Amino acid sequence: MSRAGVDGLQLRFPGSWWQIALADPQAAKQSARALVVRVIGRADQHAQLRAELRRSIDDAMTEARTIDARRFAIALEIVPDVPIPAFLSIVDSTTELTAAASTEPGPVLDLFLAGLARADPATDAAPATDAAPATGPAPAPAEAMERFAVGPAQVARRVRYRTVPAEGEAPAVTNLIVEFWMTVPGQKRVVLLVFTSPAAELLEPLLNLFGAIVASARWPEAP
Fold first, then answer.
1. What is the DSSP letter of 150?
2. Using CA atoms, how far apart are residues 131 and 174, in angstroms rounded to an integer?
3. CB-based contacts of 215: which residues, under 8 Å, 6+ apart?
4. Total number of domains in the chain
């Protein structure tokens, strides 16, 4: 088990994960390079593999920064001897929802999701079907929200797919994207956890994994 936190949020990760703080770009780059060496080694014959992994991690961190993520985690091994690629970006919402009548998590999340729906008309408050195709590339389902409680916090989950077009000899890849918006107990704020994985065909196991990580969330006791 490993842990990660942003502004007091603590998460428990099953298996082994590599965590990178994104606030310092140079330190993040060095951490990513250290991960590449750990996974592949320094042998000359693996130079191409190292370059490809560095590129993959750099692209993932760049995408994490586009949503102002403060922390980034990479799954190294979730199930022994079974590589499952997965990334997590943690975004701290510093914007206080001052229009909320109280810090009760339900109304705070209601207000946040209403604003999200105005900004993104594709957002739907109906439960997600989470249906994955049996074979072939995964078509994007209707974006949807499912809500549940985690301790004193309220959470909304959205499941999406994004296809990266083929480039050169690299085939097109369909990424599973699972977003969790979680209220901060005692505050009018929301944090965002974004899990991504190119193993979209593993929808149900990945949803269970990501859900378990979110369910492990703990916040410091209020003073």
1. E
2. 15
3. 150
4. 1
Within 8 A by CB and 6+ apart from 45, the residues are: none
Q: Which pTM was predicted?
A: 0.78
Residue 222 lies in a domain: no
Domain-embedded: residue 95: yes
- What is the arithmetic mean of pLDDT over 97-125? 82
Q: How many C-alpha atoms does 61 have within 13 Å on its Cβ side?
A: 26
Other CB atoms closer than 10 Å to residue 157's CB: what's the count?
22
Tokens of 95: 């914007």
User: What's the first-to-final CA gap in the chain, in angstroms?
Assistant: 28
Q: Which residue has the higher pLDDT, 124 or 187?
A: 187
Burial classification of residue 190, based on how many CB atoms lie within 10 Å of its CB (0-12 exposed, 13-18 middle, 19 or more buried): buried
53 within 8 A of 37, measured Cβ to Cβ: no
Flag whether 223 is in a domain.
no
- Long-range CB pairs of 120-129 (<8 Å, 24+ gap) are 123/158, 128/157, 128/158, 128/159
- Residue 35 one-letter amino acid: L
Can you give the residue range of the structural domain that contains 120?
Answer: 2-215
| Within a domain: 221 | no
